[in-house]
Write a structure and sequence with these properties.
By secondary structure, this protein is an alpha+beta fold. Among the domains are: 47 residues, no CATH class; 153 residues, Jelly Rolls; 138 residues, no CATH class. It has 17 helices and 18 strands.
Amino acid sequence: MPKLFFLCSLFLLCTCVSAQHEILRSKKEVGNAQLPPVFSSAENAAAHRSPTVKSYLTPNRIVWQSDSTGQFIQNPELLLQKSNGQVAVNDPNRLRLISTADHRPGVLLDFGREIHGGIKIAMGIKPSKDPVRLRIRFGESAMEAMSEIGGQQNATNEHSLRDFQIEVPWLGSIEVGETGFRFVRIDLVDADVNMPLYAVQAAFIYRDLPYLGSFESNDARLNAIWLTGAYTVHLNMQDYLWDGIKRDRLVWVGDLHPEIMTVASVFGNNEVVPRSLDLARDQHPLPQWMNTISSYSMWWLIIHKQWYDNYGDLDYLREQEPYLIALLAQLATFIDEDNAEKLNGGRFLDWPTSPDKAAVHAGLQSMMVLTFEAGSALLTTLEKPELAKNYAAVAARLRKHLPEGNTSKQAAAMMVLAGLADAKATNEEILKKDGVQRMSTFYGYYILEAMAQADDYTGALDVIRNYWGAMLDLGATTFWEDFDINDSRNATPIDALVPLGKDDIHGDFGEFCYVGYRHSFCHGWASGPTAWLSQHVLGITLVEGGDAVKINPHLGDLEFARGTFPTKFGVLKISHERNALGQIKTSLEIPEGLRVIR
């Protein structure tokens, strides 16, 4: 008997004890009743079952409190003691928030790292049984949790509510919120309230997954960056693979590419990737572009090529065949007589390049080359030789047009990857110019890829250290939607309140869609270094549908690097050490069935 059916029957039995015939009638009716549709079959129940779990976390620090005299906030240290969240009647030593007409007490809590979820608040016993009103403010930075909605610093409730009021019941608890946060501010709303606050816990929602991939080197900063990128994507692996847990809680297909590279490097073949790709396909029937952006439809196809290379699921690839063929045909209509792309819809690479038409054209031309190459390869796999030949010829045609006037690092990187620009010259003239200025966390991954093609592995490692590492220096536990290295010069870390004369790295900066506190501090597209370090430093590339792996390590200036990588045969273990002569010694533990190509 399903658990819900049993509980419903038990409830009816217990509430009808006053009349035996009512009990019997209720039992008969319940026995003949139809269950709600979501529970009507095992198939439906499975379809609606969340892949996530929930854990409860204790705050590890009080960042700020409105009163330190003990008059309005008593025993605040009790908030930092682990609680089971269960209220009781014998709790005289609880934290108390006491308000007057002139003072509404508040506290700002730090849970130590970015998480996805909400907050559970429990109240103990008090003379009045009225519920207590609290204002809750979530923040990815301490200052965001202290902010007001709107204004120049642009705090919002968009995508997920992060600033609102609740009522906490007498001798009970309430759980609210589903957003990305590290900090929570709690304030009493009304005057003349004495609230025994029993416990405050973060309700952490995540997929309970093992980290099958790993990375360790003699550089602790790189190790921390690898793990931070992995954790950033892990938080965004909810029902679908989102780009952000505060915003954007959406499947943005272009943004998925760095994310799926990280998923493959850390978690392996996880269902969240095909689930998200299929959602994007079904939500955007042709001739629509995915997310209204032409390049994002191209990323969809490129991702499918990568996913097949990794795992070789031919049945899944065949499911994409009708859409894939139609998409290639549609894209082929957007090439002019000079072999230049003329794509319509949203013309977008990343935000920093968006005002630069020359950069956008250079990037889109490069993406067209990469897309038709990927499409040709997939059609070969699908045993469509004529179409494969046709679209290989389209890619060759597109290479005859060389965009001019581009100086952006992002578009230049894409031109290198598409074979439209020389890797070494581009690296020296554009990618390395002015260090890590004018980078983006999204296309930073492709800049690293282009530097690898130029054999500048030490330079790429320095980019990772100086750009993504600067976010760690500012208190990041996940990587951000965007980051301008120039903004960090006078900035206060995100886990502190900003003193006079210092900049608020969250509220004072940002442009385009991420002005001020709207800026997401957990964005999956920023995880590129995790995949890059596994692929290029550990030297692991899955090929032939994941039946084989190429091993080609590049330590740059590192003394050693070791780690693991998930494959469809199991976990590959690898270690590289540089000897006194500068030679690299590699040792492997290879899962049975996996071939190694060197």
